[in-house]
């Protein structure tokens, strides 16, 4: 029962921090410093990635009609006017190609160097520095953009070149925990002239192949062999992350229509300083 309560807490933290630009991986690493799951190191390494599947299913549920590429309803750009191909939504197909282009940099690095990067950078120093640096970046960019108009205000306005550049920012998050995948891609998108709402939506969609790919890679490496306790803990963590993610995504999309991202920047800076101070003190 104690382990179930712990994993519920991990699921809550994952569901909140995956979508707010404050670093889910960074928070999970920090949470592990204070609350240890009674599991093997191999299982925990897999768990902290695969629990994200629960979070990503929330995006699938909430935005299904915005990215599912088949069906006649609201098909603004059918492949053909008649026949079976009239069910294909070309604007959604093109969107998915842009998403895949944005995934390429992080996918290549993740497949080739996943274990090496984890060994090098999964520590409190990297997390704290990344929290602070990207927190400052949010504040600077939002101050720079204050009063200006975004050049890209719809998902269809995102070009393949813009998508790839956003993917480069996602690569930074793939290398340095604490950066925040959503934080890095949103910062990159804002720098490229994308509106806050579109930046957030594209970040959500970009997470689908990224998280599914990362989770599959971790599951294969783990071996797909679970004890009953491990399976229960993983499923509960994913369910909690899913429910919390639904609430957090809805909150964030409402919030950014009236506010900027600076509050998250200040939160990152304060948290990063506290992390450094805490570990320096106990060290």
UniProtKB/TrEMBL annotation:
<feature type="transmembrane region" description="Helical">
    <location>
        <begin position="93"/>
        <end position="113"/>
    </location>
</feature>
<keyword id="KW-0046">Antibiotic resistance</keyword>
<feature type="transmembrane region" description="Helical">
    <location>
        <begin position="199"/>
        <end position="220"/>
    </location>
</feature>
<keyword id="KW-0573">Peptidoglycan synthesis</keyword>
<feature type="transmembrane region" description="Helical">
    <location>
        <begin position="43"/>
        <end position="64"/>
    </location>
</feature>
<dbReference type="GO" id="GO:0046677">
    <property type="term" value="P:response to antibiotic"/>
</dbReference>
<feature type="transmembrane region" description="Helical">
    <location>
        <begin position="265"/>
        <end position="282"/>
    </location>
</feature>
<feature type="transmembrane region" description="Helical">
    <location>
        <begin position="232"/>
        <end position="253"/>
    </location>
</feature>
<keyword id="KW-0812">Transmembrane</keyword>
<dbReference type="InterPro" id="IPR003824">
    <property type="entry name" value="UppP"/>
</dbReference>
<keyword id="KW-0961">Cell wall biogenesis/degradation</keyword>
<comment type="function">
    <text>Catalyzes the dephosphorylation of undecaprenyl diphosphate (UPP). Confers resistance to bacitracin.</text>
</comment>
<dbReference type="GO" id="GO:0009252">
    <property type="term" value="P:peptidoglycan biosynthetic process"/>
</dbReference>
<dbReference type="GO" id="GO:0071555">
    <property type="term" value="P:cell wall organization"/>
</dbReference>
<keyword id="KW-0472">Membrane</keyword>
<feature type="transmembrane region" description="Helical">
    <location>
        <begin position="7"/>
        <end position="31"/>
    </location>
</feature>
<keyword id="KW-0133">Cell shape</keyword>
<dbReference type="Pfam" id="PF02673">
    <property type="entry name" value="BacA"/>
</dbReference>
<keyword id="KW-1003">Cell membrane</keyword>
<protein>
    <recommendedName>
        <fullName>Undecaprenyl-diphosphatase</fullName>
        <ecNumber>3.6.1.27</ecNumber>
    </recommendedName>
</protein>
<keyword id="KW-0378">Hydrolase</keyword>
<dbReference type="GO" id="GO:0005886">
    <property type="term" value="C:plasma membrane"/>
</dbReference>
<dbReference type="GO" id="GO:0008360">
    <property type="term" value="P:regulation of cell shape"/>
</dbReference>
<comment type="similarity">
    <text>Belongs to the UppP family.</text>
</comment>
<keyword id="KW-1133">Transmembrane helix</keyword>
<dbReference type="GO" id="GO:0050380">
    <property type="term" value="F:undecaprenyl-diphosphatase activity"/>
</dbReference>
<feature type="transmembrane region" description="Helical">
    <location>
        <begin position="162"/>
        <end position="179"/>
    </location>
</feature>
<feature type="transmembrane region" description="Helical">
    <location>
        <begin position="119"/>
        <end position="141"/>
    </location>
</feature>
């Amino acid at each position: 029962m104690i382990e179930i309560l712990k994993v519920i807490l991990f699921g809550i933290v994952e569901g909140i921090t995956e979508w707010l630009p404050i670093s889910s991986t960074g928070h999970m690493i920090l949470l592990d410093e204070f609350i240890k799951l009674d599991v093997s190191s191999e299982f925990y390494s897999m768990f902290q990635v695969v629990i994200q599947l629960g979070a990503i299913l929330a995006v699938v549920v909430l935005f299904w009609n915005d990215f599912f590429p088949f069906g006649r309803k609201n098909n603004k750009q059918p492949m053909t006017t008649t026949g079976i191909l009239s069910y294909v939504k070309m604007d959604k197909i093109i969107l998915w190609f842009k998403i895949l282009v944005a995934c390429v940099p992080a996918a290549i690095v993740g497949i080739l160097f996943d274990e090496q990067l984890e060994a090098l950078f999964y520590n409190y120093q990297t997390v704290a520095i990344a929290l602070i640096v990207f927190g400052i970046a949010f504040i600077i960019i939002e101050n720079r953009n204050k009063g200006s108009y975004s050049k890209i205000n719809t998902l269809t306005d995102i070009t393949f070149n813009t998508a790839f550049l956003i993917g480069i920012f996602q690569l930074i998050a793939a290398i340095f925990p604490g950066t925040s995948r959503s934080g890095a891609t949103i910062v990159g998108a804002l720098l490229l002239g994308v509106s806050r709402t579109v930046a957030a939506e594209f970040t959500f969609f970009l997470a689908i192949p990224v998280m599914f790919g990362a989770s599959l890679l971790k599951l294969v490496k783990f071996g797909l062999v679970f004890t009953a306790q491990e399976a229960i803990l993983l499923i509960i963590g994913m369910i909690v992350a899913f429910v919390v993610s639904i609430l957090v995504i809805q909150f964030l999309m409402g919030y950014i229509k009236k506010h900027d991202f600076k509050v998250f920047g200040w939160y990152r800076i304060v948290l990063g300083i506290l992390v450094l101070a805490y570990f320096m003190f106990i060290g």
